[in-house]
Amino acid sequence: MPSTETTTVGATAYRGHPFSWRFTTPLFIGSALNPINSSLLATALVPIAHGIGVPVGQTATLVAALYLASAIGQPTAGKAAEVFGPRRIFLGGIMLVGIGGIIGGFGNDLVMLLVSRILLGLGTSCAYPTAMLLIRRRANDAGMDQPPGGVLGGLMISGIATASLGLPIGGLLVGVLGWRAVFFVNIPVAAIALVATLLWVEPDRRGRPEEPGRQRASARAIASDLDVIGVAGFVLAMLALLMFLFGLPTTRWWVLAVSVVLWPALGVWELRAAAPFLDLRMLVSNIGLSSAYVRFGLANLCVYVVLYGITQWIESVRGFSESAAGLLLLPMTLVSGLVIAPISRRNLVRLPVIAAAVTCLLGSLGALLLTGTSWIGIVVILTVLFGMATGFATAGNQTALYRAAPAEQLGTASGLLRTFGYLGSIAASAITGIVFHDDVTDSGVHLIGWIMTGVSIALVAITVATLGARSHSH
């Protein structure tokens, strides 16, 4: 790693360390906006319902809107960043966050708030895939052979471990300033990230006017580079799938049927596309990358079943308040951050992905011990185990992604990793909704434990089976 006072590679010069706090600060702030906004609204749903005069149940659509926009927006933003440049897309996303905050803060009906949450979802989704591209670009310019593990670890922590901060921040904002503050708070944060990016992140080199022929690219060429049809097909297919999952336990089979038809059609198109949005041939041949997606999605499913299902059981069966239940789950976030840092610095893959699968299995089996009279310390042990699983899965799979993904496709690849994470969390929500549809009981939490055990066994099997395909990871 360069240690001179000024590092110069090609046309790029860095004072001191190539990954100074100036460069990483806007990237970390941007990456934290999505998880924080995901949980920020939880404490404001009831005040929002009273404020705009709608039933409390309808405000749940505000939560779903951000998840839908994020699951679709992450890989789409990554693809756009590969074509137009990561800094441009990062800045565009930050501006969308600011606009979303303004619309939500002044919103007087559910439609305006939905528009705000969609914009917040799309805007915050631009941060992670573009940050990965910016980090990769700077690492290449600095002549680094190994992934910058410490920087990737900071990105992981800001992008995942910060989710729990949304609950106390939201509660404070609503209590002091009212529900509109959970939207308005995005404006100053977005402004800080915007200014910091303009000052401390170098402009994109691709697409500059001095680049011969680039500014003369036709609309057809740009559409081909973006694979507009592929992106549109992905959006429609994913939207139908997510709408089906969000609708459970009510089964809207026609929505699932639409998704089932669209995915193969999308596959046929992508196999013929000049610059495919979903490079299926690469995903099939690059087991190191595709297996990282599957592992990350399954691990997230187990972790979020704990967040959604076990939390309901703690409150309904054990009689704990929401704040007390939140405190019981706090170790999950703290432990995940403690695990991520040392693993990411060492750029480990095999050990953490194995540990993620094993801790998921141990935690799932532990959920079978929960009863209305069991020692509440078991819940704390489970949250520690699943906090470890979160840290192991996040650190190991992101490092595997960084190494396995082609440099020119890292944006889309990074976004897809997050999409698989969202699919896992949404599937977890659907599972708990089905199991606890009528009532929250000990037998229900045991059924959830068995489901998690089955998923964990599959995760262990997939992890072991794919470790042989590690041409890009160690």
What would your notes on this structure say?
- The protein has 20 helices and 2 strands.
- It has a two-stranded antiparallel ribbon with strand order 1-2.
- α1 packs antiparallel against α5 and α7 packs antiparallel against α16.
- The protein is globular and about 65 Å long.
- By secondary structure, it is an all-alpha fold.
Task: Count every helix, treating DSSP H or I runs of 4 or more residues as helices.
Answer: 20
What proportion of the residues is helical, as a percent range? over 70%
**Strand order within the widest sheet?**
1-2
The radius of gyration is 22 Å
* Global outline: globular
- Show unreliable segments: 1-11, 208-214, 470-474
- Number of strand elements: 2
In percent terms, what proportion of residues is strand?
Answer: under 5%
Short synopsis of the structure:
The protein is mainly alpha-helical. The chain has 20 helices and 2 strands. The protein has helices spanning 21-40, 45-52, 60-84, 86-106, 110-125, 127-141, 149-159, 166-177, 181-184, 186-200, 219-226, 228-247, 253-272, 280-285, 287-316, 322-345, 350-367, 377-404, 410-435, 442-466; strands spanning 6-9, 12-15.
